Amino acid sequence: MHKDFIALTDFSSDQLHEMVDLAIKMKAVPDEYRSALAGKTLGMIFNKHSTRTRISFESGIYQLGGVGLYFGPGQLQLDRGEPISDTAQVLSRYLDGIMIRTFKHSDVEDLGRYGSIPVINGLTDYNHPCQVMADMMTIQEKLGKCERHKLCYIGDGNNMAVSLLFGAVKFGVDISIVSPADYTIDRALVAKVAEEANERGCKVTLTESLEEGASGAHAVYTDVWASMGQEDESNKRVNAFDGFQVNDQVMSWADKDAIFMHCLPAHRGEEVAASVIDGPQSVVFDQAENRLHAQKAIMYTLMR
């Protein structure tokens, strides 16, 4: 088992399935795990705003009997130029695990490289693996299993698109990624997982056609058009993504029992119509809840 949880590609399909199965069990019988991480301390480093990530990790470590310590922007010597290598080695003497939500993916990798304790990626500009674990847990709960279902992601080829691509291949899900040409996912990343996708029988499709992408999908997923740090591009992106909203028409192309997914926060009237996100096919708040359970399973697996 890999020491850190930084990218889904670091783990085998079986290992990720085991963590999702554990998360489902923890959700069903939480009292069995109340002291699973008793005496353990998780350091939580946040360089980005957070609602779901902070609260779910802080609540999660508490529910497992441990303690979470929050470090916001400007609270560590990292912000005054201390090398990550020094910080990683020092924190490894004080803590049992580190969760970090930041911009540069290389910073998370360096924490893991120089530290001796588990490092969990709470989000970077490159990927968001904890969210996708909650997503796959939600798909399994709602659809019975992940394998051989089709997931359609509509939106920017951002960290969520990357993580969903990696997660889909690991969990045996067909995925179609629908984006404007200038905002599609890096094709080199598709090539990176092509061999495993072929071995697992997963189909990966990149397209600009919403109808092609959503046709027959069992889950339709979207994310904001401008991520944190891209606020100055907001108007440009709104124009570029005109016509890429998940609305009732898009959902009509999907399977009749399809679910709608969003990692939140959402902008109603932009990437998704209110009638969809607030409608009967939406599972966005189940996804949000499952962040708690999925991350408890990750912490339990790495920190016990």
Give a brief outline of the structure.
This protein is α/β, with parallel strands linked by helices and about 300 residues long.
Describe this structure in words.
- With 304 residues, the protein is an alpha/beta fold.
- The protein has 2 domains: 8-128 and 290-303, 3-Layer(aba) Sandwich (Rossmann fold); 131-287, Rossmann fold, CATH 3.40.50.
- 43% of the residues lie in helices and 14% in strands.
- The chain contains 12 helices and 9 strands.
- The chain has helices spanning 13-28, 52-63, 84-94, 105-114, 129-143, 159-170, 187-200, 210-214, 234-240, 248-253, 274-277, 284-303; strands at 41-46, 67-71, 97-101, 119-123, 150-154, 174-178, 204-207, 219-222, 259-262.
- It has a 5-stranded parallel sheet with strand order 7-6-5-8-9. Strands 2-1-3-4 form a 4-stranded parallel sheet, with helices on both faces.
- Helix 3 (84-94) packs across helix 4 and helix 6 packs parallel to helix 7.
- The longest helix is centred in the C-terminal third of the chain and has 20 residues, at 284-303.
- It is globular.
- The model has no long low-confidence stretch (mean pLDDT 96).
